[in-house]
Design a protein that fits this description.
globular, 310 residues, 10 helices, 5 strands, alpha/beta, Rossmann fold
Length: 310
């Protein structure tokens, strides 16, 4: 029996603080209210990091100009040292491979650098050893060769679209790592880039190509099929990486949703793979132009000029 106080009234229970189910129930914090699921005991998954802002035009062009100067020095070093460089560009359709290749080659001397973009093999080439038609394009000393798609067609489009047999595909997975190790042992510097683009960004670029007559040629029937077979290409890429991401020639993945960032990142990374020194020649003093010695040139009217429409 509860004890009675001296005035005859029963003792009161100690006051308990009012129960509040989270500070967000205060009226002034109503706009901050957390969903009920967020109040559960189960810890929430960490939020993904926000995507970096897209580069502005001036910021991009200033940095690209700086990298162009470095590319010139880089190529001069490759020529002087007699190095041989092969760079492979692979990835989804509309991932930005062509744009990156264009920016890399723009400041380079074309006599010592070239882009290889082979069409579908001919009937004769189909009877050759699979790597044979690519070997003819490998560099000599002092040269840089950039492959806009490469022998990895067999692991990608040929695999997904059924252009090769299962035996041919399995043989490629066995042979490719040894083929690339052989290239590296011969003195070739082999660099492999995979351009990764999101489903949403690829769709946006496809729609942009459809709307622009100057870009519509980039959208081939094979590109359209790649959209319908997105998951098949994903599986093929994952299996390709599992077999060919080797120590001697690893795959380097390029995030390419932002084309400008992707181009700068690829150029910067490529420069870092071949340490080089500045071999910029000293300024040249031009000789005095030869003086006229009485030779009379033919009249200008005898030459055929193009129409000056602008």
């Amino acid at each position: 029996m509860a004890r009675q106080k001296s005035d005859g009234q029963p003792p009161r229970e100690p006051a308990r603080p009012a129960v509040r189910h989270g500070r967000n129930l205060r009226p002034e914090r109503a706009h901050l209210r957390i969903p009920a699921t967020a109040l559960d005991a189960t810890p929430a998954e960490p939020l993904p990091e926000p995507a970096p802002r897209r580069l502005g035009k001036k910021e991009y062009e200033d940095e690209l100009r700086r990298l162009y100067i470095e590319l010139v020095k880089w190529q001069e070093w490759i020529k002087a040292q007699g190095l041989k460089l092969v760079v492979l560009f692979e990835g989804r359709d509309a991932a930005g491979k062509g744009g990156a290749i264009k920016r890399i080659t723009e400041p380079l001397q074309p006599r010592y650098s070239r882009v290889v973009a082979l069409p579908a093999p001919t009937e004769r080439e189909r009877t050759q050893w699979y790597f044979q038609r690519y070997i003819a394009h490998l560099p000599a000393a002092g040269e840089v060769v950039l492959f806009d798609r490469s022998w990895y067609n067999r692991a990608g489009v040929e695999r997904v679209m059924g252009f090769c047999t299962e035996d041919e595909y399995q043989e490629f997975l066995r042979s490719c790592p040894e083929f690339e190790r052989m290239l590296v042992r011969s003195g070739i510097i082999l660099v492999k880039y995979w351009f990764s683009v999101s489903d949403e960004e690829q769709e946006r670029r496809f729609q942009d190509r459809l709307a622009d007559p100057t870009k519509r040629w980039k959208l081939s029937p094979m590109d359209v099929q790649s959209r319908a077979r997105w998951m098949d290409y994903s599986k093929a890429k994952d299996e390709m990486f599992a077999h060919t991401d080797i120590k001697q020639a690893p795959w380097w993945v390029v995030r390419s949703d932002d084309k400008k960032r992707a181009r700068l990142n690829v150029i910067s990374h490529l420069l870092s793979l071949v340490p080089y020194e500045d071999l910029t020649p000293e300024p040249i003093i031009l000789p005095v132009r030869q003086k006229e010695t009485g030779y009379v040139r033919p009249p200008m009217e005898d030459q055929t000029f193009i129409p000056e429409r602008y």
